[in-house]
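Reader question, answered in our methods column.
A reader sent in the components of a multi-part assembly and asked whether the whole thing could be modeled at once rather than chain by chain. We filled in our standard form and ran it. Here is what they sent:
COMPLEX SIZE: two components
ENTRIES:
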Amino acid sequence: MNPRPLDHEDPDRLYTVTGGRSRADENSLDLVTLIVSECDSAPGMQSEYVRIIEMCARPMAVAEISAALRLPISVVKILLCDLLDAGQVTARNPAAAAPAQLPDPKTLKQVLVGLRKL
Amino acid sequence: MDSASSELATHVPLRSTIDTGLKIVVVGGFGVGKTTMVSSVSEIRPLSTEETMTRAGIGIDDAGGVADKFTTTVAFDFGRITLNDRMVLYLFGAPGQERFWFLWDRLFSGSLGAVVLVDTRRLADSWYAIDRLEHHRMPFIVARNIFDGAQVHPLEHVRDALDLAADVPLIDCDARRRDSCKTTLITLVDHLYTLSSAAQENAP
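And here is the structure of the entire assembly that came back:
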């Protein structure tokens, strides 16, 4: 179980795809923030950007993008921040409750209705 | 297990109207059935990803003065449930071991709540997870995964053994069965709803 492909990943590749940066504005992106493309990919774009833009024609969560690209979450966040800065994607943020704060009853009710329909 | 074909099979796009992502975490020790539970209710084949974090090696044996930093890598599986035209719920299976908790804030703060999946043959594995969830003030329920042939104790014995507060729901589930996993999730969200409604009534 749990294959660990990244354990064998060449660190140089992770360095290269992020242009050597190691931090993203982590507060703005959650595992379940939904990313949507706002443009088509253009020739000459770095391949990871191209793939993100193509995948996010429909909304896709940060965690799903990470799984599809086989890159760690933190690396994907750095790539996404570049695309967000350039206006090539937008983020639909989760109704993020502050940590240690309960979600509001109205949201939870909607979750319950959805789960009961499963 | 590679490349375009598996990605295509796995990537079922969300509806374009979806604008809210929510998350629930299933915490449990190795082999307790987290991935099975995620698979049972997910609308996509469960995906796997990783997070890495470099931190100072405080409290770690000195490796000859070479490593004053080391990298923690945690792998986790997840699945997805579209709730309605706007909301999608992601279900993350998280390993309960110690190194994982260093990444809790980064990955799982903001979760609706957690399901602690326990195997009564290895109850001690769950103590640490429950302690950490309480520390992070993350509401949770406990679900005992029923394994074939496992001796079944009354649930109240499990509550005692886990030193679980009376108001924390404790249920049986079968991680292989979709309806059982669905009931487990509904029990958690019902519990959250009760807590949230009470908090709102008590608000000034």
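What stands out: The helical segments of chain B are 3-10, 34-41, 104-108, 124-135, 155-162, 178-202. The first strand of chain B starts at residue 20 and ends at 28.
Send us your own complexes using the same form.
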